[in-house]
Amino acid sequence: xxxxxxxxxxxxxxxxxxxxxxxxxxxxxxxxxxxxxxxxxxxxxxxxxxxxxxxxxxxxxxxxxxxxxxxxxxxxxxxxxxxxxxxxxxxxxxxxxxxxxxxxxxxxxxxxxxxxxxxxxxxxxxxxxxxxxxxxxxxxxxxxxxxxxxxxxxxxxxxxxxxxxxxxxxxxxxxxxxxxxxxxxxxxxxxxxxxxxxxxxxxxxxxxxxxxxxxxxxxxxxxxxxxxxxxxxxxxxxxxxxxxxxxxxxxxxxxxxxxxxxxxxxx
Length: 267
Prior knowledge:
Elements lengths: L1 H6 L12 E4 L9 H4 L10 E4 L8 H12 L6 H18 L1 H7 E10 L5 E9 L1 H20 L5 E7 L7 H15 L7 E2 L6 E5 L8 E7 L3 E9 L8 H8 L3 E4 L5 E4 L7
Antiparallel strand pairs: 1-2, 3-4, 5-9, 6-7, 7-8, 8-9, 10-11
């Protein structure tokens, strides 16, 4: 009965006939019982119908995402434990090639915690296109889980825990962060294991655009914007000024300021 039901469903990403169900986010992000002495973090996880291409054949991307996320400075103790157990085993098993795939131009540094203790950290450049692809899959899976249909349209990803080389992308990221911080609407936090992963959807705006915030290990944040094919192209003054390339200043009530389309040399 379950097998026949699955055949009637389609992949959350491409619409091909579903052959399995995929964990959203990937199962490897959730600690195993042997590492945390409990199975509670792997109970009642989100799954969506998937084809082979968007499930089993992207297992390397799932492991890549796990290694990038678990070690983010600012994560909770569960992320730290995951880094010291499952991620450490993967690094020891795969060696430097795996580390090279995670981070380029690595530098070892030390970070002083609030207690005064110093911790070794790695600083480098992540594979941003691959990270964006990983988060796009999670975002589309959550859309399928939330609304019961495959997302059709354009989605945009901004990763809060990286520093973008593009000044415009970095400014957009900071604007998104401020926008979520100042949102007056009380958002519903979803996710059965919020210590590992939680997410929040905004209601569609006047153009039909939908925003979402994903948080991993209470420290790593990713912003998502869904623009369905049925949505209207945003037509407001700020959007038009940004598109035009005209220098634009954005001020918030708390005194913070953001500048877009700055000319070279302008402060």
